[in-house]
Amino acid sequence: MTPPDDLIRAVEAVLFASEHPMTLDEIRAHVGADADVRRGVSEVERLYAGRGIELVRRGDRWHFQTAADLAHLLRRNREENRKLSRAGIETLAIIAYHEPVTRAEIESIRGVQISKGTIDVLMESGWVRPAGRREVPGRPLTYATTSGFLTHFGLTSRRDLPGIDDLRAAGLLDPVDLAFESLDLAEGDQSGVESEIVTEDE
User: Fold this and answer.
1) Where are the coiled-coil regions (predicted)?
2) Among 94, 125, 127, 167, which lies 20 to 30 A Cα-Cα from 146?
3) What architecture is the 6-73 domain classified under in CATH?
4) Which residues make Cβ contacts (< 8 Å) with residue 201, sequence separation at least 6?
């Protein structure tokens, strides 16, 4: 078996030693500005495919992790000090699907105010981060998800978030949510009927 070349070995070493997922530019800063880092990462990913640890992509960052089918071997039962509240779950979902989003926009979608502590908990969990300010009067702060969010939920990118049909099939839609969805569809159909009636009268 032909040993990997120096670039592949360098990329492997940098990723193995890193305490956090790395972008291609961050890897390039260690292995050389002229290095074909994208090829190196692809080769390392191929070399580790199917092994006990694997190289995975989370957004635009790469890191080593335990193979998903072996995670149960390393999982220890432990008591959760803090469970995510219903408000926290809803807020996280809104941020994930609508980011970058302001507090006011989150409250508008939820229909109720959220406490400052809700977003604080999500930020302490490493799942949500400040994402700059919206260029509107008052310049409100916006929020977005992190690579830690993708890692925790096993997502390569936000494009892997489940759609409405997936959520319904998994039984994760609240009956109230389904009722509102049906109501919205009914109102949309009714609006179409009313438009047709107005057109006919004219």
Assistant:
1) none
2) 167
3) Orthogonal Bundle (1.10)
4) none
**Helix (H/G/I), strand (E/B), else coil: 143:** strand
| 160: helix, strand or coil | helix
Please tell me the total number of residues recorded for the chain in this structure.
202
Residue 11 neighbours by CB under 8 Å, 6+ apart: 27, 31, 37, 40, 41, 43, 44
Kindly state the tokens that stand for 201: 């009268």
State pLDDT tens for residues 36-52: 999 999 999 999 988 99
Tokens of 55: 């190289």
Helix, strand, or coil (residue 166): helix
Query: Any idea where the domains of the chain sit in the sequence?
Result: 6-73, 86-160, 164-192
* pTM of this prediction exceeds 0.70: no
Instruction: Note the pLDDT tens digit of each residue in 88-143.
Output: 888 888 898 888 999 999 988 888 888 878 888 899 888 999 999 988 888 999 99
**Same-fold call for 6-73 versus 86-160:** yes
Write the CATH number of the domain with boundaries 86-160: 1.10.10.10
Rounded to 5°, the CA angle 34-37-41 comes to 165
> Which one, of 165, 104, 167, 95, lies nearest residue 140 by Cα?
104
